[in-house]
Amino acid sequence: MQADQAKKKCVMEYLRVLKPGGLLLTHDVLLKEAKESIRQELSQAIHVNVGPLTQDGWEQVMIESGYCDVKVLTGEMTLMKLSGMIYDEGWLGTLKICVNACKKENRKQFSTMYKMFAKNKQKLGFIAMASYKSSKR
Fold this sequence. Notes:
Helix content is about 55%, strand content about 20%. By secondary structure, it is α+β, with helices and mostly antiparallel strands. Keywords: Methyltransferase, Transferase.
């Protein structure tokens, strides 16, 4: 998750280093509807200025940056769900996350993040994209 300008800078740098015809695979948090209030709440919860985009917003960033044949997959956000953590991190990784979340110095932050994602679970998702650099560049 990056702010809008940083996001564009990243995808431009990826394009610069990709070989012609190269494939970029990337993923991020997806806003299911463009609402500034959700972006602000997410930024406050994770203490980072972030700019999650809608599917249309992401496709626009990729095409304007010079990518072609952008393919998109979207789905449910499982970042703060036990099943999602086990899938992403494995049992041991999930156990480490839970142990760290229970530490006194982390408990409040983890709780804030958990509540924010639970409250907005219908408004947030994931987006995964496969985009190609033109073979002519």
